[in-house]
Amino acid sequence: MDQDLLTIGAFAARSRLSPKALRLYDRLGLLAPAYVDEVSGYRYYRADQAERARTVALLRQLDMPLARIAEVVAAEGSSAAALLTAYWADAEARFASQRTLAEFLRGRLSGRSSEMYGKFVVETVEVPEVVVLAETRHTLAAELPAWIPASLGRLEEGARACGGVSAAPFVVYHSEVSQESDGPAESCVPVADGAAARAWADGPGRARETRVRVEPARRLAYTRITKAQVAHPQILAAFEAVEAWVAEQGLTLDGPCREVYFTDWDSAGPEDAVCDVAFPVR
């Protein structure tokens, strides 16, 4: 055994970590001892491992997942710094979203729900029967910002072979979509030519989640929201405002809620109206 190796106690003192923490890091594959005595099982470390041990401890204080810690400590110099920068950008975005959610919940718990709902103007509209290309997926809330534009893009591309898009695309939530519940959700693009749509859906290479169906004529209660309000949890307040209005008017919900996207998302600014949050009613 190398005489320059440190016992776990001596290394713990040098790295300012406990032997218990060092054993945990070893078990997690984040910091293996330089040598383990086969007879006694004693762990020994090199002095130059102290910096890695302290780095692991500091990264754990940032609540960084163990797999990402392993990536950071395995990288070198600017690469390690870039990995940390990317992680912290994600964390700050998550904290900002949680801060907004906390404010939303604070208003609800303090009895200010009616004040929040008053920001939304609710109206009704009659929509005709349409044939739609549809794609259904079980998805969690965090996946929606990526899945919605991707699925609508695929369906709008298909609509070009079906007489074109005949009305605003929409997303139907057949069951709750949240961080714990995965729906399903259904993206729908109305098309002008139903027969062509059925031929397109039956074509080679179509995902099994893609189908053609008839969306019946409905009366919708809706509120129009901006691009900024589409973000979670602001959009929850919009859904709840429509539900509260429906109850106040003595109407009955008559189908799953939906988001109707009536303008180009990419070209819209934060304060531009982009979406109707709607419930079928009778």
Explain how this protein is built.
This protein folds into two domains: 6-74, Orthogonal Bundle (Multidrug-efflux Transporter Regulator, Chain: A, Domain 2); 122-281, Regulatory factor, effector binding domain (Multidrug-efflux Transporter 1 Regulator Bmrr, Chain A). The model has no long low-confidence stretch (mean pLDDT 89). The protein is built from nine helices and eleven strands. The longest helix is centred in the N-terminal third of the chain and has 33 residues, at 77-109. The protein is α+β, with helices and mostly antiparallel strands and 282 residues long. A hairpin with a 6-residue loop joins strand 2 and strand 3. An eight-stranded antiparallel beta sheet has the order 4-9-11-10-6-7-5-8, covered by helices on one side.
Task: State the main characteristics.
alpha+beta, Multidrug-efflux Transporter Regulator, Chain: A, Domain 2, Multidrug-efflux Transporter 1 Regulator Bmrr, Chain A, 2 domains, eight-stranded antiparallel beta sheet, three-stranded antiparallel beta sheet, 9 helices, 11 strands, elongated
Short description:
By secondary structure, the protein is α+β, with helices and mostly antiparallel strands. Helix content is 41%, strand content 21%. It has an eight-stranded antiparallel β-sheet, covered by helices on one side. The chain has a three-stranded antiparallel β-sheet with strand order 1-3-2, covered by helices on one side.
